[in-house]
Amino acid sequence: MKKYRVTVNGSVYEIELEEIKGDGASAAAPATPAQSAAPAAGDGEAILSPMPGNILSVSVTEGQSVKKGDVLMVLEAMKMENEIMASASGTVTGIIPKGSAVETGTVLCTIK
Prior knowledge:
By secondary structure, the protein is mainly beta. It contains no helices and ten strands.
């Protein structure tokens, strides 16, 4: 163990660090990140997630006709519910399931 003094925002803290030698097998395993959902598979224009979050509800089904501006699903991010709307009229060819955890840029839905 080695002791260090660290100053953070004007406050001084004393910390101890342990040096790990060898292959690190005795170290704790890193946390496994939450698994995000597979993107919606389908042919057509992709509707992408604007931010990371969870899909609370899905208002459409595959094969359903939608018009530009129709609400497709609700994405919860930072305790706010965001409506994801169709950017074009057409038929839904793929949709991500309710309850999926998504990252920014994940394909939520495809419209052809």
